[in-house]
């Protein structure tokens, strides 16, 4: 493996050269109808909300549903069973076979709840709800500010606005790992 060291004007030329190559590859991919979105599949995007007090994850789930979030996406429900302690074995079931009340009642009051939620059947992701925090991995039709490099966290937080006003918050952390 060779190591390239750039100094002074060499850095400018290297960046210029990289930009030309990137644009050429981008144009070629576009000409072949290959979406650049697939390049960022490794990007991890999440919102973590820490509560100032403990809440029942079951009640948080109900609050999100009452705030416009939906558990149905493409006629399926994706969830963690109540006995899934640390395996994170996500299950899929046809929405006509899923009973929300049974799912909620299968959890103890302070048990973790894992379920996929979307807003307006548009965008969302996997939610893990614990008594003291909620973590949402933004994995379904991710919203971006522009292009596909910077996630639009504001879009998600606006959609969670009703829910966020009903709870006591400690912190909200939005994170993108490239």
How would you portray this structure in words?
The chain contains 5 helices and 8 strands; from the N terminus they run αβαβββαβββααβ. With 178 residues, it is an alpha+beta fold. 19% of the residues are buried. Helices cover 29% and strands 28% of the residues. It has 2 domains: 31 residues; 135 residues, S-adenosylmethionine decarboxylase. A hairpin with a 3-residue loop joins strand 5 and strand 6. The radius of gyration is 21 Å and the shape is globular. The strands form 2 sheets. A 6-stranded antiparallel sheet has the order 2-5-6-7-1-8, covered by helices on one side. A two-stranded antiparallel sheet has the order 3-4. The N terminus is likely disordered.
Give a brief rundown of this model.
This protein has 178 residues and is an alpha+beta fold. The chain has five helices and eight strands; from the N terminus they run H-E-H-E-E-E-H-E-E-E-H-H-E. It has two domains: 9-39; 43-177, S-adenosylmethionine decarboxylase (4-Layer Sandwich), CATH 3.60.90.
Output the CATH topology of the largest domain: S-adenosylmethionine decarboxylase
The rounded Rg comes to: 21 Å
Average pLDDT works out at 85
Helix coverage percent of residues? 25-40%
Compute the number of strand runs: 8
- What structural category characterises the helix and strand content? alpha+beta
Beta-strand level of the residues, as a percent range? 25-35%
Question: Secondary-structure element order, as H and E?
Answer: HEHEEEHEEEHHE
* Total count of helical runs of at least 4 residues: 5
Level-1 CATH class name of the largest domain = Alpha Beta
* Integer tally of domains: 2
């Amino acid at each position: 493996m060779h190591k390239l060291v750039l100094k002074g004007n060499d850095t400018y030329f290297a960046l210029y050269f990289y930009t030309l190559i990137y644009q050429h590859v981008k144009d070629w991919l576009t000409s072949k109808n290959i979406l650049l979105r697939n390049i960022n599949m490794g990007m991890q995007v999440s919102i973590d909300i820490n509560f100032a007090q403990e809440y029942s994850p079951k009640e948080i789930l109900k609050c999100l549903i009452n705030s416009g979030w939906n558990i149905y996406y493409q006629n399926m429900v994706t969830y963690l069973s109540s006995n899934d302690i640390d395996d994170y074995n996500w299950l899929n079931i046809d929405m006509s076979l899923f009973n929300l009340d049974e799912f909620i009642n299968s959890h103890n009051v302070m048990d973790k709840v894992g379920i996929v939620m979307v807003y307006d059947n548009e965008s969302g992701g996997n939610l893990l709800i614990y008594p003291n925090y909620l973590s949402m991995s933004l994995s379904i039709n991710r919203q971006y500010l522009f292009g596909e490099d910077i996630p639009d966290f504001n879009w998600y937080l606006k959609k969670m606005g009703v829910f966020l006003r009903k709870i006591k918050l400690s912190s909200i952390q939005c994170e993108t790992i490239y």
